[in-house]
Amino acid sequence: MPYAEVSVNSPAAGRSAYSYELPAGLTVRPGQAVLVPFGPRVLQGIVVEVSETPRFDDTRQLSGIIDPPLCLTPQQLTVGMWISRHYLAPLFPSLALWLPPGFERSAESVFTRSGLDIGEIPLSDLESNFLATLDTRVPTDQKTLEKRFGKVAAQKAIRHLLGHGLIERRYRLQAIKVKPRLEKIAHLRIDTEKAQQAAAGLLKRSPKQSAVLRFLANSRGRLSVTEIRREFGEVNAILSALVNKKLIEISMEESRRNPRLPAAVELPMAHTLTPAQSAAVSVVTAGIDEAKGEAFLLHGVTGSGKTEVYLHAANYALKQGKQVVVLVPEISLTHQIIERFTARFPGRVAVLHSKLSLGERFDQWRGIAEGDYDIVIGPRSALFAPFTNPGLIVIDEEHEWAYKQQDTPPLYHAREVARRLALETGAALLLGSATPDIETYNKAERGEYRLLELPDRLTPHPSAPLPPVTLIDMRDELKSGNLSIFSRKLKAEMESALKNGEQVILFFNRRGGATFIQCRDCGEVLKCRHCRLPLGFHPVENRLVCHHCNAQYRVPTVCPVCKGSRIKFIGLGTQKLEEETKKEFSGARVLRWDSDAARGKDSGYQIFDDFRAGKADILIGTQVVARGLDLPRVGLVGVINADTALNLPDFRAGERTFQLLLQVAGRAGRGEFPGRVVVQSYQPSHYAIAAAVAHDFKTFYQKELEYRKILGYPPFNKLAVLTVQHLNEADGLQLAHDLKKTLELERDSTGVSGIEFIGPAPAFIPRRRGKYRWQVIVKGRNIVEFLSKTNLSSSIGVDIDPLGLD
C-alpha cells in the first residue's frame, strides 16, 4: 500500500513530514499540493515523498488533491527542504515559498444541525434561533454566524449546542483569496468588411448601433465591453441588439491584472562592450552552456557597466531557450533595472514584489508559469518564480542586507538559496557589486566563486576617474563655531553645484525629524510602551513613531513623568534635514526619498522619475539613494553624517558603513558633470571611513578580514542567534539561562568541538511588542548540524547566518 509523507500547513507540524495512507485509485507525486486531516481539521499539505512504508506507525488517510492541481518541480522541492534543514525553519513555509500568491488558506469551522431531538434540553431564545438557522446538510461557517448573532453570543451558543450534541462541527478550507479576473469581451461574428457594410446599413435607423459596430470593426473585431462603454457610455441595450442581429457575440474571458511598468527607455550607454565587459560576458555565457551551477562574482567599481553585462548574459540565456531571474535589494530599485530590461526585451519581463496587489501578483505568477514571460525581476521573493528551466540568476548589489529575510520564518538569505537553486538547476549565478560582501569576496579568493573584474568607470568622458572625496572633520567645525548641519565646505559646494545647474544628493541614514524626545526638567526620554526604545519625531505627520514596531503616539505637551513643559527634540532625521535644507537653500527645489515619503505602491518610482527629469535640484534620502541609481545630472553627493551605523553593537558595522559610503559616493559624476563628494564625520580616522574616501576596497577587505579572524566571526566561523521572548523580564532571562545550559550539556555529552556560546544577553531591541527578548549566540563551524539535534522548542527564535548581532 503506498503512503505519502506530507508537510502540513500548521505551526504544530514544525520541520516534520507526516505519513498518510493513499486512498484506493489516488496517485500523488513528490511536490504535489494535497489536503490532509491534521488533528480535527483538514489542512493544506505538500507531498515530499511517496513510499511503500510509512515513517510513522499511526497513519490517517489522505483527503484528496487540491484543485487546480499544483506540483513543485523536483529542484524546487529539494531546495525547499534544504531551506528547512539549513535555517532550522518549519518545513511547509519553506516549501510554500514556491506556491502561487493567495494559495495558502487556513481551515475554518462550519456547522450543521445534527438531527438530534431537542427533547428536554433547555435552550435560550438566542440558542433556539441559532439552531433554527442551521441546516442538516448545507454547512454554515462560524464567521457568518458571528456576524448574525454577535461574536461572544455565537461562541457561547456553539459551546452549549455542541455540548448537547445538537450541532456538528467540521472544518473546511477558507474560500480562495484570488482568482483569474474575467471580463466581458465583444467579438464580431462576421469579417470586418461585412461589419463595415452592416454599420452603413444601420446608420439611419440605428445610428448608435452603427457607431459601435464600426468602432468594433476598426479595432480588429475584438474589444472589452469596458472599452466600448468608455467610448459610448451605457451600451448594454445596443450590444444586446447587435447580438440579436447575430452581428456580434459576448463572451467572458480572462483579463490579466498587469502592474504598471516603467516605459522602455533608450539605454544611456552604447551596446558595444568594453574589453573587460566582453571578457566577463564570455566567462558567464560559458557557464550557462556548461550548466553546472557555477557562481561568478562581478566586482566592478560604481558606474563600470555591470548592468550591461547582465543584459548580454541574459540575452544569451534566452537564446538557449532558458529563463532569467534578476534580483534587486528592494522594490524601489526595480524601476531602473526594469527600464533597461524592457527596453532590450520588450514583452518578456515579469515583475514580482510585495507592493503589487494580490491580483497583480497572482496574474504575474500565472503568466510566468504559463510561459508568457522568461525574465522575472524583483526583490528576494522573485527568486521563487515558477521557472522550470532557469539558465541565469543575477543578484545585483549582492552585498545588500535586504536579501536576508528577517521577519517570519524561514529566515533565509536569498544569496545562499540562489546558490543552492543554481546547483540544483545548473543555472549560472552572477553576483554583482562594487562593494562585495566580505564573505562573498572571501569565497571568490578561495575559488568557490569565480572573480570577474570591471576596474574602469564608463561615463561620457572616457576613462573618467572615480569622484574625488573630501573628508570633513565635524569636530573642527564645532570648534570653529559652526553649529549648522552643513560644514562650510559642503555648503560652498552645494551653492556652486546649484549655480552650475547640477543636481545634488544628500545622504543621511536616519528617517524622521528628531532622533529622540527628552524632558529638560527630569531627563525622561519618551519611549515606546511596547519596545521601551526611544521614539522618533516625525514633523510632517506631527507624530512620535517607534521605528521598530511602527506604533504611533501623540506628541505630548507636558512630560508624562514630571509634568514639566520643557520638551526638547534632539537629533536629526531626513525630515528635519529637509526642513533645514529648504531654509539654507531657499531657491532650490527639494525632494525627500525615505520609507515615510515612499509609502504608496508607485511613490518611490515617482520620486525617482521626478528627480531624473530635473523637477528637483536636491534629493535627500536614506540608504535607498545609495543603491544602484544612475542619475547623470548629479554632480555632488553630500554625506551628512558618516557615523550613524558605525557604533552599533554589530560586528558588521564597519562593513556596512564602508559599503554605504562607497555606494552613495558612486552616484556622483556618472554623466555630463564631473563628480565630487563631501563626507562629514566625527570619526574621520576610522579605517572604514578612510578606505571609503579613498575608494579602496582591497585595503578595507584585508583590514576587516583581519579583525574577523581575531574574533572568530564569519567567514571563519558560522553564527546563529537564538532568541527567547517572555512577558516577564526575569522569567525570560531564566529561560535563556536554561537554554544555554541545555546547549552546553548537549555539546559536552556528544563531544562536539569548536562550538561556543555567548550570553544570554538582552537583544539590541530588548523589548518588542510587549515582550522582553534575550539572546544566546552560537558560534562554530557546524552549528546547523549541532542545533538540529538539540530539539529546540518552537517558541525559540532561530536565526542562522544572522546579518548582525543586534
From TrEMBL:
Keyword Hydrolase tagged: yes
Needed co-factor(s): Zn(2+)
A Pfam family hit: PriA_3primeBD
PROSITE patterns listed in its UniProt record: HELICASE_ATP_BIND_1, HELICASE_CTER
GO CC field: primosome complex
Binding sites annotated in the UniProt record for Zn(2+) 2: 528, 531, 546, 549
Gene3D superfamilies: P-loop containing nucleotide triphosphate hydrolases, PriA, 3(prime) DNA-binding domain
Binding site for Zn(2+) 1: 519, 522, 559, 562
GO molecular function, one term: ATP hydrolysis activity
Highest taxon in the source lineage: Bacteria
Record text on cofactor binding: Binds 2 zinc ions per subunit.
Biological processes annotated in GO: DNA recombination; DNA replication initiation; DNA replication, synthesis of primer; double-strand break repair
UniProt keyword list: ATP-binding, DNA replication, DNA-binding, Helicase, Hydrolase, Isomerase, Metal-binding, Nucleotide-binding, Primosome, Zinc
Leading EC class: isomerase
Catalyses which reaction(s): Couples ATP hydrolysis with the unwinding of duplex DNA by translocating in the 3'-5' direction; ATP + H2O = ADP + phosphate + H(+)
Subunit structure: Component of the replication restart primosome.
Functional summary from the UniProt entry: Initiates the restart of stalled replication forks, which reloads the replicative helicase on sites other than the origin of replication. Recognizes and binds to abandoned replication forks and remodels them to uncover a helicase loading site. Promotes assembly of the primosome at these replication forks.
HAMAP family associated with the record: PriA
Protein name: Replication restart protein PriA
Record gene name: priA
